[in-house]
Amino acid sequence: MNRLYYEEGDVVTLKKGHPCGENLWKILRTGVDIKLACMGCDRTIWMARMDFEKRVRKIKEGEKMVAIVHHLPKDASNEGE
Ligand SMILES: [Zn+2]
């Protein structure tokens, strides 16, 4: 099973956007539940971590959005296997 790497402050897109029309979310809190803020209207939502991992699609790396499955932790190069 793939592990997903994300942390507080990351910007992600989900399978479905917010009803306001935006589909950019900022991760405010991680844990058993994930707290997300819609970047279109600043509304915040809580989502179970399992639901979040099913719905998350892309994550912002620098200026571009990349598929989360291709996103590696920042220190990956130090922990090669
Ligand atoms: Zn919104």
UniProtKB/TrEMBL annotation:
This is DUF951 domain-containing protein. InterPro entries: DUF951. It comes from Aedoeadaptatus acetigenes.
